[in-house]
Amino acid sequence: MDAEADGKPILDVAGVKTEATANDTVELATRPPLPDGAAEPSDETGDTDEPEWTSRLRLTFSSAQRDGGDLTFHGAATYLHDDGGYLLHSADFTVLVAEEQAEGRGGDGAGDGFRTFAAEEAEPLVTLTPDEPTQKFAVTIAGVPEEDDSMIAAGGPTGRYITYETPETLWGHEVAPPDDFIPGRLCYAEGDEWHDLELFEYGEVPCG
Fold it and tell me: Which residue stretches belong to region Disordered (predicted)?
């Protein structure tokens, strides 16, 4: 990611939010620092004005196709800023599978009753720039257990997630949950097309 120009971050970032905005789309947004003397929004103080968020990256998925033990996610990435650039990497993506479906495989980094699966090959996928802001990408996640027909709900998804893992540092801002809200999850179902299940209101559980 091209985060600096003339030695300074190209964006002044005080907060990051990465969440589903449609049933096939995850967006990464940032907000600037508040003006001098302004208080952070707080339910406790009654100040609930939403900060001004601006989307910087959009990931729209089109399919999740299986080849043996691997699952390849296809989609398009769009950089939404007019300066710098953004590198999308295979290590940015993980699949979350419920422990009871994971067959004892996967990592345990996700918590919340999920096992994690990652790309076997760590490699750059695409570099986005203002001149080429939208590019197609494909990322292959290794070792994901196959879906069972009994897991598939009406509309397709099985309660499994593809997750965009927000980088630890963005434009000089150290990303630190829970102040930064970064679930970055979408429900998926294996197949040549994306599912059409309605997106839930809450980003941490985008569908059921």
Answer: 1-53
